[in-house]
Design brief:
By secondary structure, the chain is α/β, with parallel strands linked by helices. It has eleven helices and 22 strands. The chain has two domains: 18-184, Flavin prenyltransferase-like (Rossmann fold, 3-Layer(aba) Sandwich), CATH 3.40.50; 193-400, Rossmann fold (3-Layer(aba) Sandwich). The protein is elongated.
Amino acid sequence: MNHDMDVEPLGKQLESKDIALLITGCIASYKAPSLIRHFRQYGANVYVYSTPDALEFVTEKALEWSSRNPVVTKLTSDSEHLREGLSAYVFAPATYDTIGKLANGVADNAVTTAFASALGRMEKAETEVLLAPAMHGSMENSIEKEGLEKLVAKGVKVISPIYKLGKANLADSHRIVVETIRAVSKSPLKGKKIMITAGPTPGKIDDIRYITNRFKGTLGVMIADEAYMRGADVQLIMGPGAAVPPKYINTIHVKDFEQYRSAVLDQLQKREYDVGIFSAAVADYIPEQVAEGKIPSGGAIKSIALKQTPKVIAEVRGKYPGLYMVTFKYEVGKSKEELLEIGRDRIARGYNMAVANRGEDMLNGKHLSYILDSNGVIAESTTKGENAFAILDALEERLLN
């Protein structure tokens, strides 16, 4: 068997889904093979439609090789534009010319004619249509804007370009794939407002030094990313860890415990969230006094008086009894049964779900976690990636019931 066209899997969000990628005459068309393969990394089967001009920048053979399917460059008696079962049509790159044609119902090639069929199916809620523009910045004029507004009004989702050096560059491949996953999602989380906290919440010693912990916020970012792909309205509150959230996730960056607490309470006051996922490694103790500037080196700091921090999740539970809360509990030196008892106690104190884990179970790349609710242990996972999926899967089941 020839494995030359295989791709390394990154996820299953598009498994068994057929995606049409429609490319038009733009220099960014040369990125299409990489984009196609990135779609396939998430399980998609990709069918490519191309205008003749696009083939000036990328070869038909490259498109066929990367997709493993014949490329539609012109319409024949097989009526390729009427292909059924497509979960999404993704126009990337979409040029100024093509945007104008789509907005005004012009169907003069394989790409624009396929759009006519896509629009009809979208209006019947049978598919999704996404459009990723790419052009020189000077071409983003009032006509182009009106065309995009017209398409958006019909339900087309526009993936914003990357602005650089006076150009509206095609969005990166991952952003295009993520927005497609989000568009086709049928998750019960779609449209739900979810606040997620992640990373450490240091306590200030002075304007330079902090007391902190070793947690990086990786799991919280994974949860936020997957929740976004499932269609949730995600707000991430991120401490200063090593993990970097994707730019498409709405993120509030906080530097210390006080900023963290204020951000959480402020968000809950401003918006009515459906779910709060509190994965941040919140400081239990912070310095009693914060010095201005920088305490001199050389022995000036001989001891630091600490004070206990207020329990933010307890404050939230008291003020917002209707919020579905997912909390986390990390322990060291506890047996599995002791850990589960701590998790059960969390549930008994009014939290909806608890994720419990031990330091002993986080070695050699493992991240064993137990997810509990009022029914006891409802899921176990062995890696951070599995943990993110398991938490959201459990949340979906509970929101359905």
